[in-house]
């Protein structure tokens, strides 16, 4: 009897609401792959008693599946499916590999930077690199080549691009040749320092005043000759300062109303036009990638949120919180090194004048305190 059922052309998939007793029931001789959850039983059979349809005491759903149709469909499209899967896999692998390093602006080509990136990639060609590796390289490269206003690498397809931004090209090109020293911007206690080039005039836990020289650009050579250089390094000092923040009593802000429009957008070859939406007078958008195939195809979900203007009147307590968050946010934005931190922030006072709150905090932090100053005619000031 078992073989007879298995040779049947159809499978019947059942979903039966509990309670239902399988023992000695008159509708099923044999059930397969029985599963149950809190409310239902799930299983399939090859044959059953059709009188179950007339039994009002049983609440069930049944679906008939033609095995032959499914098998034919699989046979028909199996090769196509495998081919598509292999094609997508190849594109994915190619897109993850590195085949070339380029400068995004050839006018800013720097052989030293190129060799540094090449070395950090371990001579990578046709190898994988993760975003975490890129982030780590970016963190290191900015401390090494700090003469640039901005420097970073990014991956597009199979190519690593080096992005460099300069403020004053001629000055930056010659900066490393300008002799000088690193001086203190604050009264501080030295907590740490890194000297890549230059002569140290400090030690840990030493007190320094604003304007003191920290790292000298004067070095003594082995033959007792003196050379004037441009020092490289940084100094972390403990700084205590009073910071006053102005907070307007009445703020005008744009907030979300709760109305949102969701669209799916297809992008081919990384080319996308900015769209304007006339459904809302004020709005902001959020994009989320739903599917990406290398640099060839991307499907994104675009959400357009309606905004409205609101007027908020701050109390003095609100101004305290706002000012504190501004101090912390500004510190984090200017932070260059991992060992920079705010150690203590204490409210001193706050008052209202001409609809503006003036809030003062005492802030104790450890941060970069050095700045470069040129020696004039190779003479310290």
Using only C-alpha atoms, the radius of gyration works out to 35 Å
Number of strands: 21
- Spatial gap, N to C terminus: 105 Å
Strand arrangement in the largest pleated sheet: 11-9-15-20-19
> What is the H-and-E element order?
HEEEEHEHHEEHEEEEEEEEEEEHEEE
**Range of strand content:** 35-45%
Low-confidence stretches: 1-8, 169-174
How would you state the average pLDDT, rounded?
81
Give the biggest sheet.
Answer: 5 strands, antiparallel
Supply the helix-strand structural class: alpha+beta
Descriptors:
single chain, 381 residues, alpha+beta, 5-stranded antiparallel beta sheet, 4-stranded antiparallel beta sheet, 6 helices, 21 strands, 44% strand, elongated, disordered N terminus
Set down the secondary structure blueprint.
Blueprint: H1 2-6, E1 10-17, E2 32-36, E3 40-45, E4 60-66, H2 67-96, E5 100-103, H3 111-120, H4 131-144, E6 150-156, E7 159-165, H5 169-174, E8 180-184, E9 188-197, E10 199-200, E11 207-208, E12 213-216, E13 218-220, E14 226-228, E15 232-248, E16 250-268, E17 283-293, E18 297-313, H6 316-334, E19 341-353, E20 356-368, E21 370-374
Parallel strand pairs: 5-7
Antiparallel strand pairs: 1-3, 1-4, 2-3, 6-7, 8-12, 8-21, 9-11, 9-15, 10-12, 13-14, 15-20, 16-18, 17-18, 19-20
Report on the architecture of this protein.
- The protein is elongated and about 105 Å long.
- The N terminus is likely disordered.
- Strand 19 and strand 20 form a beta hairpin.
- It has 381 residues and is an alpha+beta fold.
- The strands form 6 sheets. Strands 11-9-15-20-19 form a 5-stranded antiparallel sheet. It has a 4-stranded antiparallel sheet with strand order 2-3-1-4. It has a 4-stranded antiparallel sheet with strand order 10-12-8-21, with no helix packed on it.
- It is 22% helix and 44% strand.
- The protein is built from 6 helices and 21 strands.
């Amino acid at each position: 009897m078992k073989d007879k059922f298995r040779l049947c052309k159809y499978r019947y998939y059942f979903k039966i609401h509990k309670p239902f007793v399988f023992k000695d029931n008159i509708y099923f001789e044999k059930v397969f792959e029985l599963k149950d959850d809190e409310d239902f039983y799930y299983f399939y059979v090859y044959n059953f008693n059709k009188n179950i349809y007339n039994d009002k005491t049983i609440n069930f759903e049944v679906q008939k599946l033609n095995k032959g149709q499914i098998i034919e469909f699989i046979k028909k499209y199996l090769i196509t499916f495998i081919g598509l899967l292999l094609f997508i896999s190849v594109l994915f692998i190619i897109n993850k590999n590195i085949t070339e390093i380029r400068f995004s602006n050839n006018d800013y080509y720097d052989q030293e930077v190129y060799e540094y990136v090449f070395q950090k990639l371990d001579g990578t060609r046709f190898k994988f690199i993760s975003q975490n590796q890129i982030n780590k390289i970016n963190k290191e490269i900015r401390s090494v080549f700090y003469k640039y206003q901005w420097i970073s690498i990014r991956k597009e397809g199979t190519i690593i691009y080096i992005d460099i931004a300069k403020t004053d090209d001629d000055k930056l090109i010659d900066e490393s040749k300008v002799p000088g020293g690193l001086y203190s911007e604050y009264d501080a206690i030295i907590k740490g320092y890194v000297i890549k080039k230059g002569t140290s005039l400090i030690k840990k836990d030493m007190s320094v005043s604003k304007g003191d020289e920290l790292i000298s650009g004067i070095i003594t050579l082995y033959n007792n000759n003196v050379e004037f250089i441009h020092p490289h390094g940084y100094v972390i000092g403990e700084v205590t300062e009073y910071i006053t923040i102005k907070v307007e009593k009445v703020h005008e802000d744009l907030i979300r109303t709760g109305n949102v429009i969701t669209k799916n957008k297809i992008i081919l070859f990384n080319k996308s036009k900015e769209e304007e939406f006339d459904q809302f007078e004020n709005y902001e958008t959020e994009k989320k990638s739903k599917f990406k195939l290398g640099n060839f195809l991307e499907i994104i979900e675009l959400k357009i949120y309606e905004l409205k203007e609101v007027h908020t009147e701050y109390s003095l307590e609100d101004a305290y919180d706002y000012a504190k968050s501004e101090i912390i946010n500004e510190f984090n934005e200017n932070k260059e090194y991992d060992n920079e931190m705010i150690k203590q922030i204490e409210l001193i006072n706050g008052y209202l004048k001409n609809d503006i709150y003036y809030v003062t905090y005492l802030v104790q932090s450890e941060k970069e305190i050095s700045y470069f100053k040129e020696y004039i005619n190779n003479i310290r000031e």
